[in-house]
Amino acid sequence: MADHLTRLREMRERALAGGGEERVRDQHAKGKLTARERLSLLVDADTFQEIGALATHAFSEFGMDRHRYPGDGVVAGFGKINGRRVALFAHDFTILGGSFSTVQSQKICRIQDLALESGIPIVGLNDSGGARIQEGVRSLAAYGESFTRNVLSSGVIPQISLVLGPCAGGAVYSPALTDFVIMTRDTSLMFLTGPEVIAATTGEQVTARELGGSMVHNARSGVAQFMADDEKAALELVKLLLSYLPQNNTEDPPQIAPWDPPDRMEEALNACIPEADNEPYDVRGVVELVCDRSSLLEVAPYYARNVVTGFARLDGFSVGVVANQPIHMAGALDIDSSDKIARFVRTCDAFNVPLVTFVDCPGYLPGVDQEHYGVIRHGAKVIFAYCEATVPKISVVLRKAMGGAYVALCSKQMRSDLAFAWPTAQIAVMGAEGAVRVLRRRDIAHSADPQAAAQDFVTEYREAFMNPYRAADTGQIDEVLEPRETRPRLIRALEVLRTKVQQNPPRKHGLMPV
Hints:
8-stranded mixed beta sheet; 39% helix; 2-enoyl-CoA Hydratase, Chain A, domain 1; alpha/beta; 7-stranded mixed beta sheet; single chain
């Protein structure tokens, strides 16, 4: 037995050593941690249990028989984060550049299967040079096995991907199939084809950072939802994000001990909407005053900045927040913001997170490019997502709610549960100036002073329609609130709606206008 134990301990030590001291030093020199260092920072102390630590690749093509490492470039297992069970895997770049192999796939797929069967979140730490070329098509097929599990787990358990180094070729699809992607500012890269291939095929010259750096995917492509300054910040962000989510789709998100009085009223809310209806303001100030203090975690803050999406808390309970952002494009909806809203609403609905929508939207962004690139199709995603969602849904119209944007942004026709408005709300088919041009064109043309007549008609239209009371008269608004009482009213409403049960018609799945 002594000999057997000695051999086991030696093999475990080899697995813990990764690719060796020199490669570990190279990893540190790049400003990156090793796979095991990352996991030790992420999970609670002494809770990580590894599986497949002694697995090695089975192929000997191209001299690979000389490079057999226990674990084969990925560390996989279970642990706890803030006392809650999670499944994890982390690429080990010190072993063959973390290249994806058949054995890696077997380990990752095994942990994905166990996570799904156990109903616990899975967190993937990506740092890989891509498919292992020496294995040929086998490594490509191995990707497909993992992708299938990403899809089957979607909407059932939370899936979070960290990109902490290169992620190229087929490797990018697994993170893209997960619920949230977190990248580090300076060390993470994602692209299907690298700069050299692009230069050879199209002649375009681009650096790796310009092609697939963290800001590119956070601000332009929308592939990533978060960007952290470094790896430690990224790992802390995972812990915070998980705190807003349940273990799986059959549970509710955990409530934390409330620290902000539920009946708190903020006088500042009564003055946060400017007198001029075209003057911008930062809607995040409204959200932060209404929700529990310092609880807002913005999702995709750099992408489609005309809309704010994020998780927050009301009386310690997790809520999803959607809000138009007037300081960017006046809060109008466009292609990117429609995609951002639809994705976030569906994420919240999948994981039983109630939705609160703050509306201040003049409508959809006009433009030839918007129409040609499919703003109709993308805008329809917002309608589909809100209509499909069965979680508690509450809307608060802060100022403008015009035309189709009013309907799409969680109106009562989108099966919302409660619709509130502030006294500053303007709910109408279109703005006063546009409406007058349509309704009073002849009267203005035949008046002695067309400019004065137009202004009089605009004033008349504003008084008649640009207020919340006409909508309240017809039952489209349930209550006009004094802004300062918004927080306690939302908390009381969500307390009632916590036991809401609503079912969609039986079907395989809907056909979202993707």
